[in-house]
Structures are given as structure tokens and as C-alpha cells.
């Protein structure tokens, strides 16, 4: 294994310190793997938080800042944060207006967030939740009952964060978060496995002449192993999977994301975006905004996912509202 | 080879179309590999342009937009744009106020830019140039006489772009660009080779138990092959190389960049940043701003570079000025 790390046990700890060293607007809660806005809790504002295993950077800590998240708990690599971490996160981000917890649908994340919520509710903190399950590839999977939460989560952070920043109450923040979830679908694929710092070798075997469609962001099995295909063929498989699920009316406006899994050159993501936009047009849909980049990664995995979110005037306003975070800036 | 591409000959063409499909503010000049601001030339403003081989995305096209570049020419992968492409770029970005060409120090880029400049000057376009040579690793290299231009180029784009946006004339834009060059140093390293679409295999051999220090952004030889080292040891090697070159006074403020080479997880770049900031403090320097991300990549190479730029009040104002580009947003 060759990685830019020291001891594998220290990688999350050192990453978090490296993040606060880069971004003075982030603060690490002492003796935790929780990052929050330096000014948290923000008086009079509903808190919006998330969390999950590390290895998906910039998710989630990279989306902390004005207009998006108030804080995020980082688990160990590909492991859920503990209930204690989630509790510290909720405590630190409640200004008295309550906190919206955006949870990717993995059993550990859901269970530990729920335990934490029970604890803080006893102390008087109101918490609302939304569970993101945008991955259309498979029902049930390693770590998940039902569909997995993947890159569409970023759009939930953005919309709910903007709603909270605009002064919405907890119910309203939850409503728009759920609206994004209801209108978003994602499907991914891998050219290669990823290598965790702890294991030091590929988490799954993928022969040199095969790719995997429908892969999860931890390398969980997808829908199909196939021979290597062209970028256009892969883009078509992913896009059709996503659009089949959403079943949108002609003329519908959408946000698209071509997301890199961490080891994919940006050049290749643009090649995918070219074909994606062609397919969006072929389906009679209209791209209102197209994102291309590494938003929800899987360590060094080579591959990509495609996300489509159907937007109405409300979601467009929220997605277009200012945000200032390490991983996403909108002005 | 597994890549998200179609035919290797089409990759740059399809990438550029994928970029304009994502960013309506970018326009591709017909029958070229040149991208410009959609509103180029911007009336009354000095143009700031760059260009070079593809494979370093978001460099350079990703830095086109308000406050940075007016346009960029993309060569084939790791190949200089032609003189014709540079000429089209200069033509399209001259509003009558002249154009500053930011050139990374590679023989092909310098030669072809110079040829293009001779052509457009005959037509009455004023062009000033700055040659970026921030790589401290080696004097002379494959493709280069003198030092190579690498990630520090982005700071030149930012400062010169801000100066031009503020209404400076061509001489002033060139002066601040040169000031960045004079105060910036970079050193990189690779854990793995990169694979070009055309060749389809590693461009150089790097055994599983070795890394290369001082590598160039096309895999050109560096200073040393060594056994795998820890992130802290690697960060120290790169940082000391950079700081030896700059020879800064105690108390000097600096901008630092931890740049990923394309295949490196963001997690690892933050681990490097943690140690970098410790070393900056040990040297009695003060970090005014710290950037962490993929700014100047080498396709799918795993590795990183460290850039340090000494800043005064003028450079701080320019680097802090608003910019709105696909690859860098400052608000």
C-alpha cells in the first residue's frame, strides 16, 4: 500500500486537524471527531448537521459553512460515528431552534443518530431527521436495509442549509430536505476498488478487464460486473437507471451531478458530462444546473456516479442561494 | 487500461464539450481547443490567458471566469497547444487593452506562445508574458530548460486576473504576475505513475515499495527515488525543499497549497496539510491562507505537491479578491 498517511489508526484524527488548519471557520469539538462552524450554535437559526464514515471527503465536514451544514460527525474510515459523537454534534449546533439531522441510509448511521437523538431530546433539543436513500442500484445491501444514501445527499445539505439560513423553522427545513430526497436519484460505477488505510489492499477484487455497475460508496456490490465499456456506454447505463427511477415528465428541469469517486481524473468526469447532457436532452428534460467534480468519494476508487434531481422554483432558489464551504461555494 | 473515455484521440475534444455543457459562462472557439469567457473580449479590460497540455484539470480552462482567466488553450494530453490555438486565444481575448499570457515553463508552450504572439502583434495586439517556473526540484528536465512551471501557476492566474479585473493596465497586470512568480516555490512527489489515454499504461515505472520526490506534472524525473515514507516525512522533504528555495524572513506571511495530483484522496491531502502547517510555524512563518485540493493534476497520478507563496499587502488583496470560476471561487 502506498498512501500519504502516517499510522492508519491516526488518519481520521490527522485529517480533521488538517481541515481545521486549512479552514479557520471550522472548529473541532475537543476529544471528538466532530467538526462544527466556529460560530455554532448560530443564534436564532435551525441547525443542519450530518455525518457518517470517513473516506468520502469532502463529505461531510467539507460542507460546513454559511448556507449548508452547521456541523458533521466523522466516523472512522467507512464506519459510522458513535452515538456519543452524534450527541456532541447535536448539542453543539442547537441554538434553541432545533436541529435537522441529514442521515445517509446505512444501518449504523441511522441507529447511532437515533440513539443520540433520544439523548438530546431528553435534554430539550428538538431534532428532525431526513434519511437519504438516492442510490437506485440495489434494494438492501451490505450495511443497508433499503436503498443506500450517496451523492444526492449533497443536494439535501445545500437545500436544507439554505432554508435554515433563510430563517425557516425546523419543520420547514425538514420539508425541503425531504423534497430533495423524493426527487433525487443516483447510480454509480467503479473501474477499480478502493484501498482503506487499515486494510491496505483492495476492499474487493475487480479484474483488469471488468467494471462494476451500481457499486456502493464503500465498494458494496452493485448490479452487474461487465467487460470494460466506453464512457458513453457507461454514462448511458447510469443515466437510464436514474431516469427510470425518477420517471420525470417532459420539460422537467433538473440538476445533474457527475461525481468522481476519488481516483478519477476530472478530465474523465467532463467526458461523462458531455454524454449525460446529450441524454438529458434526448429525454426531453432541461438541465437547470450541472455539477461536475468530487463531491462524495470512496477514497481512491476510480469511477463515477450520476445524480439527477428534479427541481421546482423552490428548490432552484435554495440550490442557488449563497453558500460558503470548503467543498462547495455558491455566490 | 480502464478509463472513463471513448476513443483516446477524442478525449480532449469531448472533455472541452463536457466543460461548456457544465458551464454556460464558457465558450469554445469553433474548430479549436480554446475556451474563453462567453463575454470575451471584456470591454476595457486587459485579457489574462494561459494554456498548456491537457491532463492537468482543472488547469487551465477551469480557471476561466470573473477575476481570473479570460481564456485558455488546451493541448492534447501532456502536449503543448499549437501556435494557431494560442493565436486564436489571444485574438479572442484582446479588447484593445492587450493580453497577459501566463506561460508555464515548458519548451513547447513557450515556443508556440511566442510564435502566436508575433502573429497577433503584427495585427496590433499588445501582449505581455510571464513565465512561471515555480518547481524547485530540478534545473532542466524533460521538456524544460530551467525550472518547470507547476501548481504555483494558479496563484499567478488569481493575482493577475484580479489586477486586470480591477482595471489595471497591461504593465501592471504583468508586474503582479511576475511578483507572484518571484515569491512562489513548489515541490511535488508521486506514489504512482499516471496513465495517459493514448499510451494506456504507466508513463514510468515506480515499484510498489518506492516513491519519487521532485516529480514533474507529466511524470518527468524528480530528484530521488526512495522507499515509501510516512506522510509526515514526505511533507517535511517537500516543505524544506520549498522553504530552502524561498529563504523567507521570520514572520513572513504565506499562502500554502497542498495540491493533489489527481488520484489522491482528499483525506490524504488534509493529513499533509496538518504537518505542513506545523512546519510553517516551526520556521517562524505565518499562514495567511491555506489551500487544499486538486488544482494542478497529472491525470490519475497519486501524489501531491506543496506550494508556498510569500505575500505582501498587495498580493493578499489580489488573492482575496472575488473570483468565480469552475475550479476556484472566492467571495
What does this structure look like?
The structure is a homodimer of 331-residue chains. Helices cover 32% and strands 23% of the residues of chain A. Chain A is α/β, with parallel strands linked by helices and 331 residues long. The first copy, chain A, folds into two domains: 11-183, 3-Layer(aba) Sandwich (Rossmann fold); 184-310, Hypothetical Protein Tm841, Chain: A,domain 3, CATH 3.30.1180.20. In chain A, strands 1-2-4-3-5-6 form a six-stranded mixed beta sheet, sandwiched between helices. A six-stranded mixed beta sheet of chain A has the order 9-8-7-12-10-11. In chain A, a hairpin with a 5-residue loop joins strand 1 (26-28) and strand 2 (34-37). Chains A and B meet through helix 1, helix 6, helix 7 and strand 11 of A and helix 1, helix 6, helix 7 and strand 11 of B.
Would you kindly provide a brief summary of this structure?
With about 325 residues, chain A is α/β, with parallel strands linked by helices.
Mean pLDDT of chain A: 97
Largest sheet of chain A: 6 strands, mixed
Strand residues, percent of chain A: 15-25%
Identify the quaternary structure here: homodimer
Overall domain count of chain A: 2
User: What is the N-to-C succession of helices and strands of chain A?
Assistant: HEEEEHEHEHHEEEHEHEEHEE
Spatial shape of chain A: globular
Give the class-level CATH name of the largest domain in chain A: Alpha Beta
Instruction: From the alpha carbons, calculate the radius of gyration of chain A and give it in angstroms.
Output: 19 Å
Given the helix and strand composition of chain A, which structural class is it? alpha/beta
Low-confidence segments of chain A, given as residue ranges, are none
Keywords (chains A, B): ATP-binding, Kinase, Nucleotide-binding, Transferase
InterPro entries (chains A, B): DhaK_1, DhaK_dom, Dihydroxyacetone_Kinase
EC number (chains A, B): 2.7.1.121
Protein name (chains A, B): Dihydroxyacetone kinase subunit DhaK
